[in-house]
Design brief:
This protein has 16 helices and 23 strands. The protein has about 550 residues and is an alpha/beta fold. Helix 3 packs antiparallel against helix 4. The two termini are about 45 Å apart.
Length: about 550
């Protein structure tokens, strides 16, 4: 029984863990890296087609975003997750594929004029739909047996609709080990979402540390703070642009604005318009409404019982088409614009920033974490300008952060979660945090809870039976050639070739599964393979 750390090791994003146990090989999460890439990630040590299944903690792209890559490389096993996460991934993976195909089209349009090689997106809509078809939704708190010797249970992590920590029991012979993957641990007292559930027993814990070095501080009065930003901005004649994650954060903003309007907290601007300019956010809001049991806390639940939709109000406008989106910035009426993505690195919000960042009467209000290397982080850190669509845009708008708005537990919340274990786990692995933060939080676990804690780099291999680290590589910084702008054509060619290898590995797996088939069918299969080889054997 072995655990290998692949992604989100000394980095915030790209969650991915590879396990070998009970004769099976599987992943927990398969996330996309977002923002600045600090360290090289070790590749999956086996062909994707040889994975038996995947477990998914939640729908955020840094946990789910590379599932279509697995599909493109031949993986066809089940992807187990919660029911709400399966529904959210249905829209989020499609959206991710759409963004990547759109970006590829845009880059190729420019590149063609410059004589550059064709850019291939990491995956296509076809790959995303293929991965979505593999999703298997399961309820919270029920034990699932994906294979003999393996049991899992999804526990509400309180981070996002459908988000889960995973309890996992692995058995080989007389040896059983219990692992707990925290997933992203939710913040207490979030609007809409229930508080995280705690787990009390584990041999080994793999936990996140996104806010492992800092506190959110006292719980602010979100509604009053947001109303104040809107009031001051509208009084100046400007717009409030809120870069917001389409799933979770957008619904929270709608929840707050409903209260602001109900209590008439913004004066002199009538029933001001609020635009949700994100097809994904609109679809996600529908998913929220389909899963009240997994979504709403007691306060929101009471509203529903009274027949009140907690995330809807008058003059709420939704923008579906590109024409709808463009029209928003030609309307001079002061307005609130909520648009994805939350870190300003993709999507329609980039257009709204282009039209509003340079206007001193406007406000750009950040309501979530901004990863290092993202445009959002640069704006928050005080950049004087930012490049959007090939144009340098001066930053003259008011830049504000709504404090405490985070779906992640802060350092105290993380400690509260970690201290819930009634007996000390044999080892706690600290992942999913910025480079130094993982070490800071691991040290705090050692000092305050007496835990044997360790922050692994990608490629670390741990023997779950002996409790020993088998391989402990140092972090390998990303070079320009491997992760920067250098040798991009070589990387693209390698990615396409990886897909070809994946197809070949899948073919071999299909051949093995046909062992014992009828001779007539096997002969026909053989002829088809040989014909394909004859066509391409150059």
């Amino acid at each position: 029984m072995k655990l290998t750390f692949l992604g989100a090791a000394h980095e915030v994003t790209g969650s991915c863990y590879y396990l070998e146990a009970a004769g099976r090989r599987f992943l927990v999460d398969c996330g996309m890296e977002q923002g600045k890439n600090i360290y090289e990630n070790k590749p999956l040590p086996i062909p994707a087609s040889e994975l038996d299944f995947v477990l998914l903690t939640h729908a955020h792209i840094d946990h789910s975003g590379n599932l279509p890559v697995l599909y493109s490389r031949g993986f066809r096993g089940p992807i187990y997750t919660t029911e709400a996460t399966a529904d959210l991934c249905d829209i989020m993976l499609r959206d991710s594929a759409h963004i990547q195909e759109f970006e590829a089209e845009w880059r190729n349009r420019k590149g063609k004029r410059a004589g550059k090689e064709t850019y291939m997106p990491p995956y296509t809509m076809k790959d995303a739909i293929g991965a979505i078809d593999l999703l298997v939704g399961k309820p919270y708190n029920e034990i699932l047996c994906p294979a003999e010797g393996i049991k899992i249970r999804f526990i509400d992590a309180g981070h996002l609709l459908g988000s889960a920590s995973i309890e996992m029991w692995l058995t080989e012979g007389e040896t059983t080990r219990k692992l707990v993957f925290s997933g992203d641990i939710g913040n207490l007292n979030q609007p809409l979402i229930r508080d995280p559930q705690y787990i009390h027993e584990a041999d080994y814990v793999i936990m996140e540390s996104t806010y492992g070095d800092r506190s959110h501080g006292p719980v602010p009065d979100y509604v009053s703070s947001l109303a104040d930003v809107i009031q001051k901005t509208f009084d100046r004649g400007g717009n409030v642009v809120i870069p917001s994650f389409a799933v979770g954060r957008t619904q929270e903003m709608l929840y707050f604005i409903r209260q602001i309007k109900e209590n008439q907290m913004v004066r002199g601007h009538g029933d001001f318009p609020v635009y949700v300019d994100s097809p994904l956010a609109i679809e996600a809001t529908t998913v929220f409404q389909r899963h009240p049991a997994e979504c709403y806390d007691e306060e929101a639940g009471r509203l529903i019982k009274q027949g009140i939709n907690p995330i809807a109000f008058s003059n709420l406008k939704t923008s579906i088409t590109a024409a709808d989106s463009k029209a928003i910035n030609f309307d001079e009426t002061p307005k609130v614009i909520i648009s994805a993505s939350g870190m300003c690195d993709a999507g329609r919000v980039k257009h709204h920033l282009k039209h509003n960042l340079w206007r001193p009467e406007c406000t750009v209000l950040f309501v979530g974490y901004q990863a290092v290397g993202t445009p959002g982080r640069a704006i928050v850190d005080g950049a004087e300008s930012i490049r959007l669509f090939g144009e340098e845009i001066a930053i003259r708008a008011h830049i504000q952060v709504l404090p405490g708005i985070s779906g992640h537990a802060d350092n105290e919340g993380l400690m509260r979660w970690a201290s819930a274990f009634t007996e000390k786990p044999a080892k706690v692995f600290v992942c999913h945090g910025e480079d130094v933060v993982t070490e800071i939080f691991a040290e705090r676990l050692r000092k305050e809870l007496g835990y044997d804690s360790y922050a692994p780099f990608s490629g670390t291999v741990f023997d779950l039976v002996t409790g020993q680290i088998v391989e402990a590589p140092a972090g390998v910084p990303v070079s320009k050639e491997s992760g920067g702008c250098g040798k991009a054509s070589h990387r693209r060619a390698a990615a396409v070739y990886e897909r070809l290898l994946g197809a070949g590995q899948r073919l071999l797996a299909v051949i093995r599964r046909n062992e014992g088939g009828a001779n007539k069918d096997l002969a026909k299969f053989t002829d088809q393979i040989n014909a394909l080889c004859d066509k391409w054997d150059r």
